[in-house]
Structure formats: C-alpha cells, structure tokens
Amino acid sequence: MTATLQLPLPIPTAETTHYWQSALEGRLKVQYCPTCQRHQFYPRRFCTTCLTTDIEWVQASGKGRVYTYTVCHVAAHPAFESRVPYAIGMIELDEGVRMLAGIVGPDLQHLAVGAPVEVCFENIADDIALPMFRLTAGDAPAKQTQEIPETR
C-alpha cells in the first residue's frame, strides 16, 4: 500500500485567520489602513507605514499582473511531483500590494512579466483554500526575455 503524500499546509495565526477564512469562502482580502489610505499584504497587527493598529480587512479585486515568476521543473516538495512543471509568481494586485502565489492554467507558455491575472482558489484541505492566479485575456505584453551576459 502506498501512502498519499500530504501537501504542506499553511498554519493560520492570529494575524492570518481572517485571510484564510476568506480564501476558504472564495474571497481574496487584504488589509487596508484608513489612516494613511494604504493597502498592505501580508497580514500584520499594525500598519507598516504609520504604525496604527486601526487596520481593516477589505475585499480585493482579485485582479493584477505578474510582477515576476519562475517555472519549477523540480518539485520543491514530494507532494508537488505530479504538478511539475508548475509556475510560481509574485503578483502585483490592482490595490498595489504584491503576493506570492501559484499560477495555474493550461496556457502557461504565455506566461510573461506584466501578464494580466485573476484570482482563483484551490481547496487543499477541508479548512484551507489557497489563492492561486490564472492568466486572463487582456493587454498582455509580448513574452519578455533577458539575455544573460557571458561569464568566463
């Protein structure tokens, strides 16, 4: 008998419980500071700009752009073997915050810096859903490549 490998699960904390509960409900929420009118992510007990503790949770649009990404051809954990190759990206949300997340979908060959994305959710346990992102139609840039200088 072969044991099924469990995906590593996030452990909610006092600061992140609201975030994870919202994700389980299919909603992406980020913190907002009404004092300095700024969104922030990842969740904290205070505003990182003005240090007030009067921060709120607000519904994010769920839309953004790929800030940077990598395509993994070697699984970071044995439970991810069946997903190889998979993409992980830093997503810049329309609200101005950046978050690290998986990028899913059949069209990853079109993945590029600046590509428009939208949130989707993957239930990985009864009480945990991960915000993931998928490419959307839109004014996606041409795939960007970078020449790597030759070293000797």
Mean pLDDT figure: 88
Q: Which geometry do the CA atoms define?
A: globular
The description of the largest β-sheet is:
5 strands, mixed, barrel
Radius of gyration: 17 Å
Give the domain tally.
1
Helix content: under 10%
Total beta-strand segments = 8
Low-confidence runs of at least 5 consecutive residues: 142-149
CATH first level: which class?
Mainly Beta
Helix-strand category: mainly beta
Counting H and I runs of at least 4 residues, what is the number of helices? 1
CATH architecture verdict? Beta Barrel
Write out the strand line-up for the largest beta sheet, numbering strands in chain order. Answer: 4-5-6-8-7
Q: What is the N-to-C succession of helices and strands?
A: HEEEEEEEE
Organism: Variovorax robiniae
Pfam families: OB_ChsH2_C, zf-ChsH2
Domain ChsH2 C-terminal OB-fold: 57-122
Domain ChsH2 rubredoxin-like zinc ribbon: 20-56
